[in-house]
TrEMBL record:
Heme binds at C450. This is Cytochrome P450. Signal peptide: none annotated. InterPro entries: Cyt_P450, Cyt_P450_CS, Cyt_P450_E_grp-I, Cyt_P450_sf. Pfam families: p450. Belongs to the cytochrome P450 family. The keyword Transport does not apply. Keywords: Heme, Iron, Metal-binding, Monooxygenase, Oxidoreductase.
Length: 512
């Protein structure tokens, strides 16, 4: 108080004016920074966690009606941002793609990919860019995909023969689709190299079990992700279970790779040149042997194999099941699909990959299935590398940003009659899977577009066309159509589709 008492009136006036100016500058500066997006309040410590439902895609879409097209949620110690409209998604994946190109793998996902050394969960850095470049231009190049067409043909033919042997009995569509896709992928990845003590059918069944376990574990709300200080305790045992699943997968990979390395070593000793097309594994091992900056180590190769096997089988299998369910529910759509197959393929012939580009209506059916039932409803979350602005709101560095593809694909602002399954809408536009039109981005968009799109597109068309051309399909007696959803990192049918096939082709020999 003595300091203020001894101030002269002039000094006191100057001090007051100075403080006023400083206060104005501070207030103005703080007002220039846009606020965080709106959002619901939660409890201390746990945030909004107690209020989250099982059907998060529906819950968050409904919350957007209350809080607006972009809103925030604090769940545990983590800030989550939900983006629910095309315009705001475009700001993320197109306008500020580089800022939002990072990923933060959940603990279970990091464990399943050997510490996040894969394409899906790696950050946007030189390692990821090199890995993606090699995967796109070497492993999944058009040349390689064309060279592997015989693998796809052989496995699809085996599936048709297998289904023919079960005519009149109920077949699990998910199971038959998975085994087909798994066998195609294993043929393309490591051709004739086998796992000791396992036949193809046993291996496909084991893969399906492991993939189901991994997807389920990654889909769970893990307290270790929401409260990092609790991670070391693994309270729900999720990481322990994932390590167990990875151990089973690693055993398969190790057996395959060791066998191939031994084979390569013997050929090298015998001075035998590698003849014919190379499978994916050989391409990766050759790159490793080159010992360039772009080469891999064995663990990184395994992480990439996890991506191929898990993402490759889960996406295709889930989509085929949804497509079959939608087609079987609508007799008019089924009729149009099969009429197109008769016109392009003919009942005295089997489907070949050369037919696929001419199946325009079936292509539209698949795209409409992706629209109404996006396999990854929130896409893989993005982590901004610096604080930025989206939709007029501040998005802090390091928060977790979700793109609600499920909501965007059903937005009446961009889609006429959005809840109706209507393949015709895709006959009227040129939309593809590259995510250039953000209103339709089932595989993502921008830098983080899924690199496996070319293979997935081929397999979806080939398997669906073959099943629908070779057989008539009906539900088992007493069963009703069920399109209810089961939310997770992938959006699966709550109840597996079981259907009964009957012969459709004129010549029995076409099934052999």
């Amino acid at each position: 108080m003595e300091f203020w008492i001894h101030l002269t009136p002039e000094l006191l006036a100057i001090s007051i004016v100075t403080l006023g100016i400083l206060w104005h500058l501070i207030s103005s500066s703080s007002n220039d920074v846009p606020p965080l997006p709106p959002g619901p309040r939660g409890f201390p410590i746990v945030g909004y966690l107690p209020f989250l439902s099982h059907d998060l895609h529906k819950q968050f879409t409904e919350m957007a009606q209350t809080y607006g097209p972009i809103f925030k949620l604090r769940v545990g110690s983590k800030l989550h941002i939900m983006v629910n409209t095309l315009d705001l998604a475009r700001e993320v994946v197109r306008d500020q793609d580089e800022i939002f190109a990072n990923r933060k793998a959940p603990i279970a996902a990091a464990t399943s990919t050997y510490g996040g050394q894969d394409i899906v969960w790696s950050n946007n850095n030189s390692y990821w860019r090199n890995l993606r470049k090699i995967f796109v231009h070497e492993v999944l190049s058009n040349k390689n995909l064309d060279a592997c067409s015989s693998y796809r043909r052989d496995e699809v033919r085996k599936t048709i023969k297998n289904v023919y042997g079960k005519i009149g009995t109920a077949i699990d569509i998910n199971e038959i689709s998975f085994s087909t896709e798994a066998n195609v992928l294993t043929s393309m990845i490591w051709e004739n190299t086998s796992v000791k003590g396992a036949n193809d059918r046993d291996l496909a069944a084991e893969f399906q079990m492991i993939v189901a376990e991994m997807v389920e574990l990654i889909s769970q709300h893990n307290l270790s992700d929401l409260f990092p200080s609790l991670a070391r305790f693994d309270l729900q045992g999720i990481n322990r279970k994932m390590k167990k699943s990875l151990k089973k997968l690693d055993r398969i990979f190790t057996s395959i790779i060791d066998d191939r390395l031994e084979f390569n070593s013997k050929k090298k000793e015998d001075a035998v040149e590698y003849e014919g097309k190379k499978d994916f594994l050989q391409i990766l091992l050759d790159l490793k042997e080159e010992k360039k900056e772009s080469s891999f180590n064995i663990t990184q190769i395994k992480a990439l194999l996890v991506d191929i096997m898990v993402a490759g089988t889960e996406t295709t299998t889930t989509l085929i099941e949804w497509a079959m369910a939608e087609i079987m529910q609508d007799g008019n759509i089924m009729k149009k699909v099969q009429e197109e197959l008769i016109q392009v393929v003919g009942l005295n012939n089997i489907v070949e990959e050369s037919h696929l580009s001419k199946l325009e209506y079936l292509d539209a059916v698949i795209k409409e299935t992706f629209r109404l039932h996006p396999v990854v409803p929130f896409l893989i979350p993005r982590i901004p590398s610096k604080t930025c602005i989206v939709g007029g709101y501040t998005i802090p560095k390091g928060c977790i940003v979700f793109l609600n593809t499920w909501a965007i694909h059903r937005d009446s602002k961009y889609w006429d009659n959005p809840l109706k399954f209507d393949p015709e809408r895709f006959l009227k536009n040129n939309m593809d899977y590259k995510g250039n039109n953000v209103s339709f981005m089932p595989f993502g968009s921008g830098r983080r577009l899924c690199p496996g799109v070319p293979l997935a597109e081929k397999m979806l068309m080939y398997v669906l066309a073959s099943l629908l051309h070779s057989f008539e399909w009906r539900l088992p007696k007493g069963e009703q159509h069920d399109l209810s959803e089961n939310f997770g990192i992938t959006l699966k049918k709550r109840k597996s589709l079981v259907a009964v096939p009957s012969q459709r082709l004129s010549n029995v020999n076409l099934y052999m």
